Each structure stands twice: as C-alpha cells, then as structure tokens.
Amino acid sequence: MNDGSTSIDWLGILGYDEASPLIFTRFFFWGFFAVVLAVYSVVYRRRALRNAFLFAASLFFYWKTSGLFLLILLFSTVSDFYIGMGIHASASERKRKWLLALSIFLNLGVLAFFKYAHFVVDNVNALLGTDYHAVNYFAQWANLAWDTSFVADKILLPVGISFFTFQTISYSMDVYRGHVKPVRNLLDFGFYVSFFPQLVAGPIVRAAEFIPQLYEEFTLTRQQFGIAVFWIVNGLIKKMLIGDYIAVNFIDRVFADPLRFTGFENLLSLFGYSLQVYADFSGYTDIAIGVALLMGFTLPMNFNSPYKARSTAEFWKRWHMTLSTWLRDYLYIPMGGNRGGSVFSWIMLGVVGLLLMLLTGWIWLPVIYLSAVALFTVLSMLFPVVRKMITTNINLMLTMLIGGLWHGASWMFVIWGGLNGIGLLIYKGWSRISPWGKSTHWFARFQAIALTFTFITFTRFWFRGSSLQVVNDMMHQIGTDFGWSVVGDVLVGFRSVFLVMLVGFVIHWLPSSTKQWYRDQFVALPLWAMAIICVITVLGLYQTVTAKMVPFIYFQF
In angstroms, rounded to a whole number, what is the distance separating the alpha carbons of residues 301 and 282? Predict the structure, then answer.
C-alpha cells in the first residue's frame, strides 16, 4: 500500500549494478565521497579508527564498481599481509625467498587467470587445432555452493586488478629487501591496498611512500585544500570536456569504421587519441590526487607533461610514471638493467618467446629463438662488449614487451610494447652520435619534441585499434586516400572538436611556470570564489555529457 511517502531505495544505493559503477564522473560518487568526508570528520583524530573506516569505505567503493570481484581484492590483501609478516619474521634466507616466491606466484596467478586465460586458450587452439574452452572455476564453485547462476564459460576482467596486484607484489618485495617494515594491523594494510581514490586506475603506490602516512596525524592546510580542489576540477575538465568530448564526437567514430573517413580524418583521429588518452588517464590521476589530499594523504605524481619529451626515453620518464618506475625497479633492474644479463633475463626471454609463439601461431619461432641464442652465445664468448650490449638491450626490450602485455592480453599490445622498445633502442644508439643532442637552440628542441610525439602517436595505432584490420584500414586511408580536396570541409564540419583539441594541446605545451602561476592564482582565491568556479565548472561540464557513459580508458587494464 502506497501511503504517499518517499522511500529510500537501499538496494539501489548499497547493491551492485554493473551498468552504474562508482566512478568519478557520476554524481553518485560525489554523494558517496560527501558521506565519507562527513564520517571522516568525526573519526580522523583516532588513527586506528580512521584507517579502519577508510578501508571499509574503499571496500564499498570496489563492491559498487566490481561486485563480487571484491573477494579477489580481499584474497590478495589477506595473503600478502601474512606473507609480509612471515618474510620479516623469518631468519632463514631460504624461507624468505620461498615466501616472496609464493607472493609473486599467487598475485601473478590470479592476474594471469582473469586477464590472460582466454588469450592463452584461444592461441593454443589456433596453434594446435584444439577446441579448449576457458572455464571460470570460481563461478562454478559459487553455483555449486550457493545455487547461484554465474556464467561459468566466460572469465570477466576485474576492474583495477593489474594495479592492486602490482601494488601488493611491490609490498612483498620491499619487505623482503628491507625497504619497509611490514604493517602489523590487517585493517591498516587493507587500507593501503584498497584506498579508493587510486584503487582501480592508479597511480601505483609504493609501500614505502604510503604506509608511513597511515600513522601520521591528519593535516590539511589552506593551501593544500586549494590545491586539492584545483586538481579535482582540473581532472574533471580533462576527462569530460576534452577527453570524452573529442572521443564521442570524432575519435570513436573513425576507429569504428576507418574506411568511411578520409586519410586526413584518420590521421587527426590518431593525434586526437593521443590527447584523449592523456586527458582521460591523467585526469583520473588528478582527481585521485585531489580526493586523497582532502583526506590528508599524498599520492605520487603520475604524469609530467609527457608530450614535451624530447626523446622516447624522456617520454617514459614523464608518462605513467608509477608504472614506468615499477617496471624499472621490479623487472628491469632484477634482470640486470644496463649492467648486463642474468639468468632471469634468459628465463623471461624464453617466456616472452613462448607467448609470442602462442600469439602468432608461428610454430617455427622456437627454431629462430634457439638459433638466436646460439649466435648470441658465440658472439658473447668472442666479444665481451657485444655480450653486454646484447644483454642490456634484451633487458630493455623485454621490459617494454612485458609492459605491453600488462596493458592487455592481445597481439596489439605486444606490438605496441615492442615498437616502444625499438624506439628506446634506436634512441640509445642515436644519442651517442647525434650532433644536436646537447643543443639548446629552440629549433633543435622543437624538432625533437615533434619527432618524439609523432612516433609515440603512431605506436597508438596498435594501442587503440581493435584489430590489425582496423590498423591496416587506417594506414591504407592515410597512404592512399588522404582527401586533400575535402580538408577544408572536414575542418569546418568538425570545427568544435578540433577547437577543443587545439585548446588541449596548447594548454599541455604551456610552460611549467605558466601552469604553476594559474594554479597558485586558484589556490589564493577566497573560498567563496573557489565555490563559484566549481559550481560553474560542474554545470558547464554536465552540459557536454552524452547519453552514453564514457568509462576511464585504464579501467580495462
């Protein structure tokens, strides 16, 4: 019986809805964050209670974003908490190594199952002519235990699994190396692993950077408050006004059917995608940093104007910096880095070779691989300098290939990672002989930035394209049907999109001093002026929202 009163839909608020994840661009998130801040304002002085509350809030956030995949996050949290305690407590080096290996095995095992199972099965079938199927055993067990109806023949990818598994692996390795002491409280550790602003798309937070903050008193100065608000507003503008707008109104259309558009449109969509992926991903990071700072926690910088880079090496020091440094510290250096090769290098080379064979179906690839190994061995015995050059370049190439695979179980990402590796190797060689390498002339800087940006953009054929056929179609249009005669019509027809792109690139290439100036100007504003700017910005942004929600690009990784 309806008495005319308004009832609260608790199921809608507390339940999981796959179509309505809890993300920064939804009003529901900001309602959730307002509630979190309200409770936080009561408990923040009691550190244990504060950390426990934020852990619970983060679990709710992940439940609303990924549903029962919350259990995977909890498994990773609990297992690495006790493994870390065991590593620290053990006096046996052998036991410590076995515990570290267990942590790596469990984390990579879970990641491999959910992210690479279909990839491996599909390529084994293509290679051997078999008809295997990937089976979601977790769904089968749940159906048997609780009479549920989860789909058992499809393995879905949990949001953010690549980020939090890398985070827990680095924790175990840092405890093993003695870089950080283990967290003694499970709730504190759970908060570190699952802190909701950066949980599903980074930045990847090192234990040594974040864990000390768990035990510090809450502080938030007037300047920090202003900076936090600035980063949130800045991130929303990047994501919704720039990234989403140019994606929905131009880029997605071209990549969906390249042959319907001229080569000129294909080329602009490719450069537009470079802007979109930066605006989307760095926008998420900006919001995450701002939200965390409002609660008194500092997250690491993840981007530093990457399209200002003058080389591929500099680009990877500016782009997705927390992943780049993670791969350097936990993969590249353990393989030997630039000092030379190691047993780990050759093991990883064999693993990557096997994966490439599965990807391509080239059954003769092992023959080439073994022949190359034999050639390298002979050259290494005859020329020690050649040995070091080969092994260090192998380490670099392997790191980039694995970085590509981290982004997804696809031949496209392997190609993308490999091309970036080749770009780094070419730069290493060229930098030794380049007559302009140390030039401070503006044109030398301009051409270096333009060349690097163009190379990085063209590698994104394989990052964004859904298949090799799409890449081939786009290249075909650019090479054979550029459409010079309709360039003017295209510029007029998509003028609003290109204007947004132009503004986005201009802002990106502004001097750092200029960006710092307008940040400082915003921070110095009185609170009422900040509030007015925020309201106007939000109202303006939601005028550009389309009916289709545009998820953050890095949610898929």
Answer: 10
Using CA atoms, how far residue 79 sits from 70, 99, 165, 213, 482, in Å, is: 14, 11, 12, 22, 55
pLDDT at 354: 65
Residue-wise pLDDT tens digits, 387-430: 666 667 777 888 888 888 888 778 788 889 889 988 988 888 87
The CB density around residue 372, as the number of other CB atoms within 10 Å, is: 13
The type of residue at 335 is M
State the catalytic residues.
407
- Please tell me the chain's helix, strand, coil percentages from 3-state DSSP, rounded to the nearest 5: 75, 0, 25
CA-based nearest residue to 518, from 295, 227, 121, 271? 227
pTM higher than the cut 0.85 = yes
CA distance 288 to 299: 8
CB 204 within 8 A of CB 326: yes
For residues 142-152, one letter each, b for 16 or more C-beta atoms within 10 angstroms of the residue's C-beta and e for the rest, the string is beeeeeeeeeb
Would you say the C-alpha torsion 518, 519, 521, 525 has a positive or negative sign? positive
Give all strands (DSSP E) within 17-152, no chain letters. Answer: none
d(CA 324, CA 318): 9
Number of neighbouring beta carbons within 10 Å of residue 545:
14
Q: Which amino acid is at 146?
A: W
Q: Which residues are CB-contacts of 470 (< 8 A; sequence separation ≥ 6)?
A: 255, 258
Q: How does 475-513 read in b/e, with b if 16+ C-beta sit within 10 Å?
A: bebbeeebbeeeeeebeeebeebbebbeebbebbeeeee
| Main-chain phi, psi angles of 131, to 5 degrees | -135, 50
Structure confidence at residue 1 (pLDDT): 45
Q: CA 436, CA 452: separation in Å to the nearest integer?
A: 15
Name, in order, each residue with C-beta under 8 angstroms of 504's C-beta and a sequence gap of 6 or more. 242, 246, 275, 279
Low-confidence ranges of the chain (pLDDT < 50): 1, 4
Pairwise CA distance, residues 452 & 449, whole Å: 5
pLDDT score recorded for residue 12: 67
